[in-house]
Amino acid sequence: MRVLVVLPTYQEAENIERTLDLVLASGVRPDVLVVDDSSPDGTGRLVEAVAARYPGRVELLTRAVKDGLGGAYRAGFRRAVDGPHDVVVQMDADGSHPVDALAPMLAAVRSGADLVLGSRYVRGGGLDDDWPLHRRVLSRGGNLYAAALLRLGVRDLTGGFKMWRADLLRSLPVELLDATGYAFQIQTTLAAQRHGAAIVEVPIHFAERQYGESKMSSTIVREAMVAVTRMAIEGPESGRRRRGRAVVVDMPRQEEGRAVADAGSAGGGASQERTGDVVHP
Questions:
Q1: Please, are residues 247 and 279 in contact by the beta-carbon 8 Å criterion?
Q2: Sign of the C-alpha dihedral, residues 6, 194, 246, 151?
Q3: Paired strand residues for 245
């Protein structure tokens, strides 16, 4: 399966070369599309330099305006679904998402998942010890609030590490999913489940970024909570009400950021599922 990793960037000059080298060296052999919002720190120029070292595997899409994470992903998805790739990955450029998790996530897709979430809040997942307390509270609180209102049966709704079947993305009205910031992650997962997608959560260890500054803020979280309230009333967008399936994959804990589970077990027979929620093994 041909894999495309979409990396949205803004002011990631300290991280981008290192992240691209790690992603491109992954065993799943992905191509990469960097969606840069005209970063004034020269992120785009660094991407072009890396692209020259990996002919045909790295593309830079430069946007003239910065209008949030959701806008960057919508632009990336438009480009991705017009291409030859079978799988599209959402991933942060700051090194917080473990590249080693791409293999078990792809195994889950091969086993039948339409959308795979790299999850911090299922058994085997976790957070870096260096993650500040206030961010832990914001993340946990946002997930609990969204889970209570939307009843999706998904543990990690706000995470940004996601793997999609390209055919699922093609079937969703992505342009109508207009949330910004972290609410976009919730909105797209809700839209996928309402479309009938099979959703799997694979545990990851979420690392604290080593360079640059986090984009997370209390303002972004408040905006996401408002957006979630609207989604609970109106749905992700009009006209799609069919619920899908969600299942948690039981994998052993990762050690030193590396998945130690057999990739082929993702989505395997040990898991149970039922329509509309999550059943733990």
A1: yes
A2: positive
A3: 198, 275
Torsion over CA: 164, 169, 173, 174 (sign): positive
Q: Which of 238, 267, 235 is CA-nearest to residue 251?
A: 267
In a 3-state reduction of DSSP, which class is residue 198? strand
pLDDT tens string, the chain, 281 residues long: the values are: 999 999 999 999 999 999 999 999 999 999 999 999 999 999 999 999 999 999 999 999 999 988 888 999 999 999 999 999 999 999 999 989 999 999 999 999 999 999 999 999 999 999 887 777 777 887 777 788 888 888 888 999 989 999 999 999 999 999 889 887 778 999 999 999 999 999 999 999 998 765 555 555 556 666 777 788 888 887 886 333 434 455 555 443 334 333 333 334 344 433 333 333 332 22
φ/ψ of 280, rounded to 5, equals -80, 145
Distance of CA 150 to the CA centre of its chain: 19
The Cα–Cα gap between 204 and 216 comes to 19
- The secondary element (H helix, E strand) that includes residue 183 is helix 183-194
Q: Which of 140, 88, 93, 118 is nearest to 206 (CA)?
A: 118
**What is the chain's alpha carbon radius of gyration, rounded to the nearest angstrom?**
17
Closest Cα to residue 205, out of 89, 95, 73?
95
The residues, any chain, with a CB within 8 Å of residue 249's CB and separated by 6 or more, are 104, 108, 122, 200, 201, 202, 203, 265, 266, 267, 268, 271
Q: What is the distance between the alpha carbons of residues 105 and 161, in angstroms, rounded to a whole number?
A: 10
